[in-house]
Structures are given as C-alpha cells and as structure tokens.
C-alpha cells in the first residue's frame, strides 16, 4: 500500500465545512476532464493510489484509465463501497427489500439470480452481500484494485448492530474473489478493532479520522492513541486536516509523529495543494 | 442500565437501533417489526430477541423505554400503549398525524413524569444550536423574518410505493422533509398564529406532495417562510438551512456552519465581532460515544438516555408538547393548501397547446 492516497470527496461536493464550497466543487468537477486533470496532477506527482467511492461517475474515470493503459500503468484504485446515498434514497422509494432487489444484478444471469434468490429466501446474508459487492465492483473490471474498502456508514451500522459476521463475509469474499486486501472505514476505530479481532480478521486495514483536534474520533482521543500504540492493525488516517480546522503544516507534522500510521488519505483540487501535501509528508515522514 | 426496545426497523429504526445498541448505559432487550424478514436476519446473526407483535413484546419483557420508529400513522397508537405501561418514549418525527391525539399523549406523558422526546435531530446540530443561542442573547436584535429551507433528491421520477410516498400514512415531502425546517422555526420563533399561501404541490408523486411552500405569521409582524422540495437532484443529500433577519444583523446556518453578520451598535456576543463571523461544525460539535450518520443522531439518543437516568421528564428537548406544535403547523398548512387561492387576477389561464400540433406549432397556436 502506498503511503499517500488520493481521496475523492472534492469531486463529489463532499465538504464538511461549507455547503457553498461543496457546490462550487461540484460545478468545477461536473466535467469529467476536470476530474481527470486533477488525477493526472496527482499521478504525475507520484500519488498513484486513488481511494474512491463507487459513485456512478467513478465508472467514467475507470473507462478513461482502461482506455489509456500505458499512461496509467501504475494507477491503483482503492474502491470504497457502497455509495450509501444511492441506497438510502432507494429505501425511501422502494422499501428495504425493494431497494435490495433493485441493486442486485438483473434477472437472467442465472448464477446471480440463484445466489440472490436463494439467499433472500434462506435469510442468508452471504449470498446477498457477495452479490452486492460484485455489482459495485463491476466498474473496476480489468483495473488494479489492491485494497477494497467497506464504507463507514455500512461498517458502523453493522458495528452498532453487532452484526460482526458480515465483516468476515466481506473480508473473505474480497480476498478470494478479487485477490485483494479488505479494508474498513469507520468513525469508531477502537470499537471496530475489537469487533474485527473477535471475528478473526488479523492485522486489518482500518481507515478512520485521525487528527490533532480529535474531530470525529469516536471513542475518544485517548482510545485512538492507545489503539495506535497497542493494536496490531494497519491504520490509514483520513480527515488529517479536520476539514481545514488544522493548518496543513501542523496537521502533517502531528500525524507523522503518530505510531503505526501506514498511509494518509487526502483530497485536493489543485496541483499546488497536491504538491504541498506531498512535500510536507516527505519532510516529516520519509516516503521510501 | 436502561432496558430498551426498538419498534419499527425501517431506515430510521435500524439506525437508531445501531446507535442505541452501542450506548454503554443501554441494554437493547428486543426489537419489534411487523415484517419478519429483517427480524429473522437480525436474530440469526446477532441473537437479538425479536417480536412481530408489540403487545406480546410488552407482556414478555421488562422494559424502561422504547424507541418508536414505525410508519408515522401508527405513532399515536404505539406511543399510547407504551405510556400506559409507564415506559419512557422516544418517537420518530412527525409525532402524530392527528393533532388532538398528540396533545392528549403529551398530557399523559407529562402527568406520568415519563421522558418523552421526538426525533427532530436538527436541534442537536451544533450550528442550529448556535443560532438559538445567538437569538436568545439578542445578537441580531429583533427578528423580523425567517426563511427555512430543505432540499434533497428523494423522489426524482414518477415511481415508488412505500408508506413514505403516501400522505395518508404520514409520508410525503411535508411530513418527511418540511417537518424539519418547520420544527426549527418553531424552536426559534415559537408557534405561529396563522399560516397562508401554502402550496403542497406534486411533481412526480401520485399520492403525496413533492414540494411545500408556506408563510407562517406571528403576532408582532414577524413572519417565516418555508421552502422545501424533495425532488431536487441538484442536492447530493438532504440539506436543511435557515436564514434569519433581525434589526441588528443576519444569521445563516446549515449543518456545516453558522454565518453571522452583526451590525454596528448591536450587543455583540463574546467571541464574535462586528461584520461577518463564521463558526464551523468542527468548532460547534461535541464528540459523541458512537458515530453512525452525524453527531446529532447520536446526541439526541444520548440526551434521551440521560433524561431517563436523571429521571427528568420535564427537561426534555423536543418533547411531545413541542412536537405537537410542529404537527399543528403542518395540519394548518394542509388545510390552507386545500382552500382555493383567495386573491385572483381575473385573467383566464391560457389554453394548453393542442397535443397533436404541440411540437411544431404549439407556441404560435396558443398565442393566436
């Protein structure tokens, strides 16, 4: 896994500070060329891993990368699934089971229909989970996806429900079907680590907010510090700048001093910002 | 330990269940839903006790509290049974479609000293709380007008057939979306005297409205406007915002930030200055024990639990009594929208261009 990962919030108008800024970003990145431009900037700066939501627009990024294999030979996708709003709005429209059916592959694909239909009937979530994963992964066919993440809304829902078996099902499927590492995004890192340990997922990749001011580090700052110190897992830090509340230099200096951080995920909309973050990380934390 | 059950495992119920189940002071004794499917899956994988019958559940197990997150139309009935069993109740919004029923339940809860809360989570959003604090300190002088809005991409085509798309079940843009900005206005300005100019308009839905507009009138000339649309794809997700004009300034707030303009001569609150001020969610939000979908959702449940522990049913945020004010405003808006417009121009509407020629000659034909 690379030490510096490029995030995609900026491309989809996800901004935890300001709705206005979020909208301005949505306008700017409406054109796929603008997205590719920034990804090119990152790639040319040596930031070649792209941690992205399985949003419909990412499928277009995938098409672009597939059609230029030489240009992007070192490019890696780290898919984060699912894009939750898609499902939430579908539940309002079609109800829980209806929404589920909507996202399962179309009838006619015999294997999928069997897997889905039978598991719906048997109340066996393994078949459904793996089908949903496969549906989300379709856009990445033929591309390099070394780590595949489960999004925090789903991880934390399962965590709260104490539905730990699902973590294991996800992890096993990612390993066997995609020969990739499973990753888990969470807002409750210490609690998740305990749950993953219980279902025997060893040395997991866990991505969570880790920042100097403790923003959205649920379970408390000390619990995070203790986990980084004592637990065996591969930590990815996100929201290092706490949505802009911590100045870049201070934020990177602090995160680079924390133990066991394997990678930092950051978002940026300009070449200058990408370069600045990269050089700060190089200054405080030797990238090999 | 607070012994609790969750009733109704739809979108809200499931997320409440996940959050409250992670609460260190709560033991979820059982969950209840009318459809067996979700229950069976949960029971199979988590071992939680499940019931399809609310009354059987109440007979079977000892509880201190329930979370009611069933379709809105059944809230009243469920809440009444729970209150009669002396249970503390957290109920999803809207509280009761029938205002008289809501008033009666609010009275029962108060008489019995039970904690009663309704899930208007915006009252736990740091930025909206800051607005309340600023208004109470008179930071923008006397309020003259409020604009409260909510937009989002829920119904984007003529389709859908769940309770949430039917007004009679307590679904629709009014109960689902508009309830939130209305509740914020009630929090900031209190109960309005009257409503007018209400528009409950269908865009795509068959059985309910997709956009809601209305004016709320207050006795001293203050007014508020509600502007809500759940068929707006330009929003990534539901976005609620308020703008408040006062004699000494203006406040704008959404979930992320609170922007305040304070005029010279105003009594400026500590930490604020004349002119523009911005407070971000990172400054205004308090940490929660468990995060699923926004601190406010966790915070409201934690507040409910703490009220139970401190045995303080009267100090509730979003009490039944307050939620009834929002229910009543919505009922007033429905009645208002059903009236014909009181002032008309007298000009007959233009006939629609004939369908057959519409494509080629429609425009010209209509003019002639």
From TrEMBL, chain A:
<protein>
    <submittedName>
        <fullName>Uncharacterized protein</fullName>
    </submittedName>
</protein>
Automatic annotation (TrEMBL), chain B:
<feature type="domain" description="GFO/IDH/MocA-like oxidoreductase">
    <location>
        <begin position="128"/>
        <end position="251"/>
    </location>
</feature>
<dbReference type="GO" id="GO:0016491">
    <property type="term" value="F:oxidoreductase activity"/>
</dbReference>
<dbReference type="InterPro" id="IPR036291">
    <property type="entry name" value="NAD(P)-bd_dom_sf"/>
</dbReference>
<dbReference type="InterPro" id="IPR055170">
    <property type="entry name" value="GFO_IDH_MocA-like_dom"/>
</dbReference>
<dbReference type="Pfam" id="PF22725">
    <property type="entry name" value="GFO_IDH_MocA_C3"/>
</dbReference>
<dbReference type="InterPro" id="IPR000683">
    <property type="entry name" value="Gfo/Idh/MocA-like_OxRdtase_N"/>
</dbReference>
<feature type="domain" description="Gfo/Idh/MocA-like oxidoreductase N-terminal">
    <location>
        <begin position="3"/>
        <end position="120"/>
    </location>
</feature>
<dbReference type="GO" id="GO:0000166">
    <property type="term" value="F:nucleotide binding"/>
</dbReference>
<dbReference type="Pfam" id="PF01408">
    <property type="entry name" value="GFO_IDH_MocA"/>
</dbReference>
<keyword id="KW-0560">Oxidoreductase</keyword>
<protein>
    <submittedName>
        <fullName>Predicted dehydrogenase</fullName>
    </submittedName>
</protein>
<dbReference type="InterPro" id="IPR050463">
    <property type="entry name" value="Gfo/Idh/MocA_oxidrdct_glycsds"/>
</dbReference>
